[in-house]
Amino acid sequence: MNVPDSDIKSLLESYQTITVYGLSNDQTKPSHYVPVFIRDKGWNVIGTYPKNHNVGGFKIFKSLADIPKEDRRFIDVFRSSDKIPEVVDEILQLGGTEVLWLQLGISHPEAEKKAEEAGIKVVSNRCLIIEYNHYF
Description:
The protein is an alpha/beta fold.
């Protein structure tokens, strides 16, 4: 993680759209209710999920590559830690990402370092709901 705690609030305030990598159709999972919470607090939230769904009224794309580049600037990831290297590789291949946010319980130091070296701001092992409630 290369974003200090003191910058979390301004980082969140700097982006209007958050792309959620792995936005689940299961309303009981954090990968669904966290995006709902953030959307309800005023952010535009779009998602990726390998299966078609319209649960929660989100615009869902099958892959990150299908999402317009301007909407991939801030990516919030709900994938297991062992999948983060391939997520980072995909993000770097596509370009345009400025912030990589790994949700609570998710981290991969090597992949995070690779993203940081590419100029991406990285926040790991943090929940958007917790951070929102702390700073707003």
